[in-house]
Specification:
single chain; 74 residues; mainly alpha
């Protein structure tokens, strides 16, 4: 399955750059498995909440703050 291979590959990339690979998750279910879908989405949401903010977004925000403070001091 191509999507599964892509998810595995993406997890490896995240490991390489120091981000938790748990941020990428994949599961399969049919349209008839509404309850299972709800359980999986809830589980993934809880995992993401536990992991916290995206570290790339945080580092991007700090770079932006640095740039703005540098511009103010110039």
């Amino acid at each position: 399955m191509i999507a599964e291979k892509n998810a595995i590959y993406t997890k490896e990339i995240l490991k390489t750059v120091g981000i938790s690979p748990e941020r990428i998750q994949m599961f399969n279910c049919s349209a008839a498995e509404g309850q299972r879908f709800q359980q999986e989405v809830t589980r993934i949401s809880e995992t993401i909440k536990h992991l916290g903010h995206n570290p790339l977004k945080d580092s991007d925000a700090s770079r932006k703050e640095e740039k703005e403070s540098k511009q103010k001091s110039d």
